[in-house]
Structure formats: structure tokens, C-alpha cells
């Protein structure tokens, strides 16, 4: 029997440069606030159009497998863990956190790559009480197949059995069934933390998470990713499709993609397919980035994501767009993510200007917690924190000393220099150049889910 909990995520070991050489950085990405769904339409049925569709279909599978390789196989990751063991993130992100785009300062993360090919896996969860947490089961196609957590199951200690597709045998007494869509799945744990003083308690909860399995699965053997190599891209996507049968609804798309060598039954690329991928792979990547502007519904400078985020079905456009900015997004019932890159005048948010965001009393409407994070925009579109005098990268419902207005509203001052005096408690320091805001609302109330609530615009101020 195997059992495991382990380590600290990427706090030491290989440098980012070494990791990048092995293909572990997220693809060059644009903010979700700059994506467009309509631009993903591909009308022509020729090989070039099919290759573009294959890239969009395959990118989430590839990126998921790339991170799986990093966590469980990469020789450059000294903290890699075998499948069915946890890898824990022990510290909050700051401006040094540059490996994965759009980090947050709300939760600590734990991750486990679960291999169900040798049978079900037992998950033991400690008592969380009233502290927010979630454990998402994410399949090889980046859909959330099941949840444990404050919303889904409550804060009590419990034992669960993660079962592969089609498993219908009886479970141990007292255990609850969790359904995995694919034999290889990811457990992503998010635990709310109230700053560094809360580390010890959260680390104890992380250590209380346990995975056990009666039979040891075979050693992982994913193809090492190389995002610069089109043949590597196709080979890894096809490997994922072979070891994780795709949903029945994908068969129509996969029938078309076979023409460019993508599919579980596809062998090595033919000479003509190799030539096609070699000629147009870079174009497919650039086209995806060039086309992604205005994705989702935009209101007063804020972009609201589609309702199928996190369970995409055949909406390959949304799935590809989400994969570009970051894998493993929550479903809306768990968390709503909203993005701002424009002010009330429709102009880009830039560090040379001063802004104010006035949140009405009780906003955003959530039954758990909220935060507003600020990110500098890298040349490739990725988003990271910037160092600042307060070492503050977000304002949230847990930020100490916030001063509200007489009507209960909250003014957040977003600018490079301190607003001075009693406004500094509500200051969110901005980077020098372009920046983005990301509002997170966990356990959103119906008015946020159905669109009745809208964030107010970000106002330029003198």
C-alpha cells in the first residue's frame, strides 16, 4: 500500500531558466481580460484551418500534461513526487513568484497527480471547520469532475474514494465516492490563509491530507515536453488521448483532427504532416495570441468569463483561452474571476495615472471571501506581482486597517505613489507600466453568478 504527503512547491532547486529550457513555463499568454470567443471560429475545412483547430483543441491537454510532468517526473524538479502523493505550497506568492502567471495571495495550494490505472485511491481529509477550502478533481481535459470542500461537502473530517470511470464496486464503510472523468487526474487543494501568521495552522491542515492506494501504479512515463517542437506537441497530445479516453462529444472534432495527425489512433506523423506542422506551428501559436481580445462579456472596463468555465464541454475556444492564462480554474459556483484592464474612459490602466475603485457596501456579494489583486503585464502578456513599499499585492476582506466610507462603501486607491495620510490604509500600489486587476470572489452569491451584480468602473483621479 502506498501513502503520501510531501514537500514544498518550487521553493528551492532548479532555477526558472533551467525549468524554462525544459518547457515548464506557461505559454506566452495574454490576460483573460483581452480574450475574444468569436475569433476562434474556423470556417474553412482545409489542412491549415484544421491544424489551427488542432492546436486550440490540444493546447489544454498539452499544458496539463506539461505540469503533470513537472510535478511527477522532471529531473529538474528536486521536489518531484510520485503519483498519489501530495506536493505542498508552503508560502504565499510575492513578486519573486514568476513561474506561473496570475498568482494569488488568498490561499496556499497543494497538488497531487492521481493515477487510477491500478484502482481507486483513498483520500483522507482532516477537520477544516469554518475555514474555507476546496479540493478540485481536474481531468486530463482540464474539466473539474468533482469537488470536496466547504461548498461541496462541508468542513468535517471525512474519507473519500476516488474512482476511475466505470468503477461500480462497493466502497469501504463510511467512505464517500468521488468520480474522476479520466484515469489520470489532478487534485488541486486551495486553503484560505490569513497572512503569514496563519502558516502553522494551514501547514497542519496540509499535512493532514492523505492519499493511499492498495496497488502501486506504474511509474509515470509522459513524454518530456518541449513547447518549441511541433512534433513534440502532437506526440504529447496523442499520448494524453491514448491514456485518457476523450469524451464521446469530442469524436466529431477528433475525426477532423486526424487529418493533421492528432488522435489516440494516430501514429507517427507522415512526412506531409510533419511539413505542415513545421511550417505553421508558430503561426498557430501567434494567431491564437493575436485573436484573443475582448473574450467574455465586458461592462465598465471589467470582463466577465463565460458560465462554462471549468467544465467546458465542446467549447474548445473557451478551454484554449483559459489554458493560455492558467490551468485548473474553478467552476463559477466555487469562485468568480473578473478582470479589468481599462478605466471608465476605456483607456488602458497604466502606472503613470492614479485611480480609485469604489466598491459598494457588501460588494462583491460572496459567502466566503474576496480579493482584488494587481499585476504588471509582461511583454508576452503574462501577469505577475511587482515589488512595492508595502509589499502589498492585493486588497481583500482580510486586509487589516481598511477604512470604509460612512455608507459602508470602500475606496481603493490604485497608484504608484502613496495617496498619503489616512488614504494609505486603502492603497493598492501600482507598477510602472500597464497593469491588470483581478477580482476574485469565492462562493459567490446568485447576483454575481447571474450577472445582476457588476463591478463599478475604475475611475481616473487627479
Automatic annotation (TrEMBL):
InterPro entries referenced in this protein's UniProt entry, alphabetically: DUF1214, DUF1214_C_sf, DUF1254, DUF1254_sf
Signal sequence residues: 1-43
Start and end residues of each DUF1254 domain: 84-212
Keyword vocabulary terms for this entry: Signal
Keyword check for Signal: yes
Domain DUF1214: residue ranges: 334-445
Pfam families: DUF1214, DUF1254
SUPFAM superfamilies cross-referenced by the UniProt entry: VPA0735-like
Name of this protein: Phosphatidylserine decarboxylase
Organism lineage string: Bacteria, Pseudomonadati, Pseudomonadota, Alphaproteobacteria, Hyphomicrobiales
